[in-house]
Structures are given as structure tokens and as C-alpha cells.
Amino acid sequence: MKKRMIAVWMLVSLAYGDNIYERNCVPCHQDLPTSLQQMFKNYLLVYSSERFVKAGIKHYLKNPSRSISQMSKLFLDTYGIKAPTTLPDRELDEAIDIYWEKFKVFDKLK
Questions:
Q1: Per-residue pLDDT reduced to its tens digit, 17-57
Q2: Contacts of 60 (CB under 8 A, 6+ apart)
Q3: Could you give the CA distance from residue 74 to residue 21 in angstroms, rounded to a whole number?
């Protein structure tokens, strides 16, 4: 039921313009050499399941540090560690849900 509600909300959001993910995540990442899709793949390789990927991303966004980053040392040396998010938990969860739906591979594999 929850997944169905999220899918409906995402379709409505896409029809009416920007969503919280597009407003709060995409602008900061658009000038980086590593895409959000590649970052997603890094998280997926480490955490493997939807639950753990989302938890890992949320933990990192709230408490960013080199020790838990999924980015390479070279990337971190060049671009540094992001500042902790200022999004409330509800909005952060919403943005992460949209991110997951956008890049998940499980329903796309045949």
C-alpha cells in the first residue's frame, strides 16, 4: 500500500513539475563529475537492499563523514564532504524515496 501511494505521488509530482529531490539534490550534483546514478550504484553495491540503501543514504546525509562515504578518496580530496542536510526527516525520506524509484534496477532487469 505504501509503495503504491509513493508511486502515485511521484506520478503527480512529475506531472506538476519539480519535486523535493529535483529541488534539493539535483542542483548540487549537476556540476560533479560523478552522476547521481553512479552514486546510487555505489550505494547499491555496498548495501544491496532497498531498506539498507535508503538507511545508508539517510545516515550519510545527516552525518556526512569520510569514513562512511561511498565516494573514492580522490573524489573526496577534490570535492570534500558535503554539509549535513537541513531537510526535516519527512522531506529527506521523500527525496530518498524518489531517488530510489528513479535509479533502482530491480524492476528493470529482465
A1: 589 999 999 998 988 999 999 999 999 999 989 999 999 99
A2: 68, 69, 70
A3: 26
Residue 76 sits at the vertex; the CA angle it makes with 34 and 103, to the nearest 5 degrees, is 30
97 assigned to some structural domain: yes
Residue 36 lies in a domain: yes
Q: Domain range holding 41?
A: 2-103
Residues in the chain: 110
Euclidean distance between CA atoms 53 and 3, whole angstroms = 16
Q: How far apart are CA 6 and CA 14, in angstroms?
A: 12
- Residue carrying C-alpha cell 545508508: 56
Residue 102 corresponds to which amino acid? K
Q: Has residue 110 been placed in a domain?
A: no
108 in a domain, yes or no? no
Residue 39, C-alpha cell as written in the block: 552514486
More reliable by pLDDT, 11 or 69: 69
Contact between 103 and 36 under an 8 Å Cβ cutoff? The reply is yes
How far apart CA 3 and CA 72 sit, in angstroms, is: 32
